[in-house]
Amino acid sequence: MRLDRELTCAQLVEVITDYLEGALAPVDVERVEEHLVFCDGCTTYLEQMRATVAMAGRLRAEDIPPELQERLLGTFREWRRL
Ligand SMILES: [Zn+2]
């Protein structure tokens, strides 16, 4: 998947499983990491995803419990309002 130059939080969420699995192109990995430098929200999201992977041993988007996904996306909406 190719990304535009500036990665948004929504795009990061979309590619996070690929990122964690090392399936992203190097240039996109760079964009993810550039985004994480200034975005605390996505850093937290990534940490939670890593913890989920550590528990499950593997990760596919459909393995993320819908309620967790909903909670995290709700958190993003909170930040947007701040
Ligand atoms: Zn972000």
Q: For the CA atoms, what is the radius of gyration?
A: 12 Å
Q: Which molecules are bound in this entry? A: zinc ion
Count of strand segments: 0
Q: Biggest sheet, in brief?
A: none
The percent of residues in helical segments reads over 70%
What structural category do the secondary elements indicate? mainly alpha
- Round the mean pLDDT to the nearest integer and report it: 80
N-to-C terminal Cα separation, in Å? Answer: 30 Å
Poorly predicted segments: none
Estimate what percentage of residues fall within beta strands.
under 5%
Number of helices: 4
How many domains?
A: 1
What order do the SSEs take from the amino end to the carboxyl end, as H and E? HHHH
Q: What does the overall shape look like?
A: globular
How would you sum up this structure in a few lines?
This protein is mainly alpha-helical. It contains 4 helices and no strands.
Can you describe this structure?
- Helix content is 72%, strand content 0%.
- The protein starts with 8 loop residues before the first helix and ends with a helix.
- The radius of gyration is 12 Å and the shape is globular.
- With 82 residues, the chain is an all-alpha fold.
- The protein has one domain (9-81).
- The protein has helices spanning 9-21, 26-38, 40-56, 66-81.
- The chain is built from four helices and no strands.
- Helix 1 (9-21) packs parallel to helix 3 and helix 2 (26-38) packs across helix 3.
